[in-house]
Structures are given as C-alpha cells and as structure tokens.
C-alpha cells in the first residue's frame, strides 16, 4: 500500500485506536495512591493499522517517520523506516511477546520479526506465528513461483500456496500448494500425493498433532487422505473429524443417494441421510454417535448400533458427559421436544433451548433450558428452576471449579442474574456473556443498565453510574481479590479498580492482568501512558 492510501485510512484508524469514542477536555490532577503512570511518549499525528497484543499489554501502530518513511511503533518505541508496509501485516505472537510485519525496501519485500529484517523477496504474505510463539512462517515469492519460509528456511517452489497451518504442538506444518492445475498437501515440507483439487477447509491436524487429514477430489470422486494414505473413494464426502484424543477418525460419505459413516476405516450401514452436526466422539474417543434417517424417521446410531426411532432429532444437541459414561440428545415427538438421557426420555416440553443440553463439569447433572406454557426454566437434573418469560441465549456459565452456575433471564421486561439458583435484582438490561467468576470461584461480576446509565455489579455490590462500560470488562486479578473495568463519563474514560478511579483519559484500552494487579494504555493530551494499578 502506498503512503497516500495510508493517509486516507488515517481518519478511520484513529477513531478505533483503543476504545470507541474520542473526546477532549481538561484533565484532573488527583491520582489515587495505588495507580501510577509511565509515559511512553507523544502520539504521532498520523497513525494507521493499530493492533493490540492478545494480553492487551502492548500496542503497535504504523506511522510516518521523518516525513517520508513508514515505521511501526511498539509501546511508544518507533522502529526502522521503510518505503512501504503491507496493510494488515502487523502481528503479535500468541504470547504477546513478539511482533512481525511485512515491509518494502526498493522493489523487494521482507518480513521483519522483533525488529530483525528477514531475507528480501519479490513479494511476501502475512507472518504466521506458531501456537507456542517460537516459530514464524510466511509465504514468499520470486518471479512467478511461491514457497513457504519457515524459521528462515525456504521450502519447495510451487505455482500457488494457501491454507497454511501449524500443528497444535507447534512442531509440524501443513499447507496446500498448486502444481499447474493440480494440488498437493505439503506436510513438514514433504509433498504428498497429487490431486485435482483439495478442499481448503478440510485440512486438519489431530489434537495430539500426530495425524493430519484432508478431503481431496480425484477426477469426479472424493477421498479422505489420512497421514498421506488415501481411503476408499466416494461420490462425495461432506464431513471429517478426529476423535478428541487423536486416536480415531470418522467421516460421512455418499454412495449414490445413500450415506454412510466411515469410522476408523470401518464402513457403517447405509442410510437415506446422516446429520453432520450429530457426528460426535465421546471425550475419551472410544464412542461415536450420529443421527441417521430411515425413511421418514430418524434413529440414533451409537457405536454402530441403531437405537430408537424418532420423528426428528435436533442435530446439534448431542452431548457426552466429561467422563464419557453418559450421553444426551434432544428429539421431537409431534409438536413436543424432550431430552433423551442414557436412552431414557425426560419430560416433554414445547421447546428445548438451542445448544442445550449440557453436563455440569463434574458430570453429575444434565442441564438445559426448556419452554412450557409460554414460560422458560432451567432444568438441573430432574429439578426445574424458577420460571421466566425468556432466558438469554448465551451459554450457562460455570465457575472455574465447576461448583457454581449462572445464567441471565427476563421477567416482566426486566433482566436478572440467577446464580446458584438465587435470583438477583432486576435491571433494564444485562450485558451478554456475563456474569464472570473470579479464578477462585468465590466472586462474580456483571454489567447492568438502568435507563441510559451502566453500572458494574460485584458480589451484589452495585458500582457508580457511567455512560458506558468497556466491552469485555470487568476482569478479576489472579488472586481474585480485585476487579477492574473501564468507565466513560463526562467525555473521558477512567480505569476503575474496586472503589478507586484513575485519572481521566481521552482513550483507554481494556485492563490486562499484570502480576497481581492490572495494566492498561491510555492517551491524555497526545501522550501515551502505561497505567498501572497494584494492590
């Protein structure tokens, strides 16, 4: 991207630097004793491509250096200048400790990793960090050929490269490459068999990183390839999964107008249809279940054995207990729905909430939301909870130790949080995704709205009113004793920890957990500050 395009982008980028809403006004002068600031220098007048690290503790953006170069600024420190920088290439590593981007010098491009320039090429793609942050890969090209560069080592050349992956353990790599009109999978820099086409979204590593699979077209038929070994060909293959432990595999294949599940190389019974959303391994990988259509009805197939027949099976409602000993799913009888638990039907309801049922984390209770006679309730085991007009369509939230449970419900147009069966106060609105529990599971927090004002509730204690509360806040610190959030009031942002309020900032980012306290970055009077709160 040339510099003129960057400048045009400036108007949008600066408005999204840290949090929505930029304002200006006088600063206050009283800083609470547990808050401190570190100045990271003046903010440039022109900034673009703003990126925050995953842990929220670092900020990077592109600016103009010495009036003619483009440079990346990281936490206030400006890096080397280049003739051009690839838009959207500034990338932090998953652990937030490293950064990479694509830069141009003369007529060549290169990846810069931790301020260290890599070799130059005619063109480069975006940098990709491994999950453990120790490895970096990117596509590069010379002339009309492309190749992957992994840890500074260039791989074989191809006509086109796409869909690159690191394995979950970061030790292996895989990508799709074009050779003329054919495609191959390159695993650990070794090309596999050549196929007419490889389905891009089918390339997958097993969770233990030992196996890799994909779906390929060979002429007009399709084939699953596992560890470079092709399975039998079928007219179509719609879905492939590895078991959670990586030891097993299963996929749905079509033979003419009939469908089968192929599990660990064994071909199952043919059916009119098989629901891909119902194909599920148990957590220990030893059991496999799916819903299959026989005529106009559906049956459940568990470990290859057919179960009862139903009018309809809710496709995405299959769930195993954490220990794999129990299984539940939702079926429809006429106009009613019910949960089948270990083969036994429960009470009939008008509707079972989508995404339910779920098991408690200890696996002892089955939990789901159900509607009957226009009222919703949460069912825990065989015990129905209090009735509400509706239940918020966010997942039921468990505490880290799995012993506490929370959800949000509405009654008479007012919203309430239900924690451990206790119904909380009523509010006009409660933000989705809340409440959150502290790491020791003893405390909880959520964001509420009454009228035009927002407040944070921590352990039933309602905080002061603000015009806005930043998304994804509040958060608890590691020892669970303190909660932090960002509030907007009187045209300025504040960081609030317990009852303490920071100085005012024109912009501020979400708090990050740092040691036993919190950190954030804020801008006041064109100066970037690191804001620190310590207990």
Could you explain how this protein is built, in words?
The protein has 535 residues and is mainly β. The strands form 13 sheets. Strands 1, 59, 60, 61 and 62 form a five-stranded antiparallel sheet that branches. Strands 6, 7, 8, 9 and 10 form a five-stranded antiparallel sheet that branches. Strands 11, 12, 13, 14 and 15 form a five-stranded antiparallel sheet that branches. A hairpin with a 2-residue loop joins β61 (517-524) and β62. It is flat.
Annotate the secondary structure layout.
Elements: H1 3-14, E1 35-42, E2 47-52, E3 59-65, E4 69-74, E5 77-78, E6 84-85, E7 91-92, E8 99-105, E9 108-113, E10 116-117, E11 123-124, E12 128-129, E13 136-142, E14 145-150, E15 153-154, E16 160-166, E17 173-179, E18 182-187, E19 190-195, E20 197-198, E21 204-205, E22 212-218, E23 221-226, E24 229-230, E25 236-242, E26 249-255, E27 258-263, E28 266-267, E29 273-274, E30 280-281, E31 288-294, E32 297-302, E33 305-310, E34 312-313, E35 319-320, E36 327-333, E37 336-341, E38 344-345, E39 351-352, E40 358-359, E41 366-372, E42 375-380, E43 383-384, E44 390-391, E45 397-398, E46 405-411, E47 414-419, E48 422-423, E49 429-430, E50 436-437, E51 444-450, E52 453-458, E53 461-462, E54 468-469, E55 475-476, E56 483-489, E57 492-497, E58 500-501, E59 507-508, E60 512-514, E61 517-524, E62 527-533
Antiparallel strand pairs: 1-62, 2-3, 3-4, 4-5, 6-8, 7-8, 8-9, 9-10, 11-13, 12-13, 13-14, 14-15, 16-17, 17-18, 18-19, 20-22, 21-22, 22-23, 23-24, 25-26, 26-27, 27-28, 29-31, 30-31, 31-32, 32-33, 34-36, 35-36, 36-37, 37-38, 39-41, 40-41, 41-42, 42-43, 44-46, 45-46, 46-47, 47-48, 49-51, 50-51, ...
């Amino acid at each position: 991207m040339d510099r003129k395009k960057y400048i045009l982008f400036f108007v949008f980028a600066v408005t999204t630097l840290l949090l929505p809403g930029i304002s200006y006004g006088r600063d206050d002068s009283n800083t609470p004793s547990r808050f401190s600031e570190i100045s990271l220098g003046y903010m440039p007048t022109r900034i673009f491509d703003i990126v925050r690290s995953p842990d929220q503790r670092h900020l990077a953006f592109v600016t103009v250096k010495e009036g003619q170069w483009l440079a990346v600024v990281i936490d206030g420190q400006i890096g080397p200048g280049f003739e051009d920088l690839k838009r959207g290439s500034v990338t932090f590593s998953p652990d937030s400790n490293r950064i990479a981007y694509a830069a141009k010098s003369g007529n060549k491009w290169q990846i810069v990793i931790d301020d260290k320039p890599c070799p130059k090429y005619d063109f480069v793609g975006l940098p990709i960090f491994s999950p453990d942050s120790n490895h970096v890969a990117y596509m590069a090209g010379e002339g009309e050929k492309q190749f992957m560069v992994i840890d500074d080592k260039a791989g074989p050349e191809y006509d086109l490269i796409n869909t690159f992956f690191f394995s979950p353990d970061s030790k292996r790599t895989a990508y799709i490459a074009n050779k003329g009109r054919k495609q191959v999978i390159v695993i650990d820099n070794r090309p596999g068999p050549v196929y007419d086409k490889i389905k891009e979204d089918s390339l997958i590593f097993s969770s233990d990183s030992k196996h890799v699979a994909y779906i390929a077209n060979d002429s007009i038929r399709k084939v699953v390839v596992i560890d470079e070994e092709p399975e039998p060909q079928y007219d179509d293959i719609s879905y492939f999964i590895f078991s959670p432990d990586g030891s097993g595999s299963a996929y749905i294949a079509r033979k003419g107008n009939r469908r089968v599940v192929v599990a660990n190389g064994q071909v199952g019974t043919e059916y009119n249809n098989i629901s891909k959303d119902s194909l599920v391994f148990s957590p220990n990988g030893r059991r496999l279940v799916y819903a299959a259509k026989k005529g106009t009805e559906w049956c459940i197939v568990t470990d290859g054995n057919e179960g009862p027949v139903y009018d309809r099976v809710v496709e995405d409602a299959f769930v195993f207990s954490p220990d794999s000993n129990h299984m539940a799913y939702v079926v429809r009888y006429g106009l009613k729905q019910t949960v089948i638990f270990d083969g036994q039907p429960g009470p009939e309801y008008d509707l079972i909430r989508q995404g339910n049922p779920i098991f408690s984390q200890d696996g002892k209770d089955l939990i789901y939301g159900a509607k009957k006679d226009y009222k919703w309730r949460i069912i825990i085991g065989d015990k129905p909870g209090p009735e509400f007009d509706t239940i918020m369509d966010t997942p039921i939230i468990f505490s880290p130790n799995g012993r506490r449970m929370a959800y949000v419900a509405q009654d008479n147009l007012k919203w309430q949080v239900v924690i451990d069966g206790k119904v909380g106060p009523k509010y006009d609105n409660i933000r989705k995704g809340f409440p959150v529990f502290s790491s020791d599971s003893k405390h909880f927090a959520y964001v509420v709205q009454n009228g035009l004002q927002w407040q944070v509730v921590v352990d039933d204690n309602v905080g002061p009113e603000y015009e806005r509360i930043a998304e994804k806040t509040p958060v608890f610190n590691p020892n669970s004793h303190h909660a932090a959030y960002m509030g907007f009031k009187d045209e300025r942002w504040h960081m609030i920890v317990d009852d303490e309020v920071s100085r005012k900032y024109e912009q501020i980012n979400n708090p990050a957990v740092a040691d036993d306290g919190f950190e954030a970055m804020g801008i006041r009077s064109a100066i970037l500050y690191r804001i620190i709160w310590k207990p």
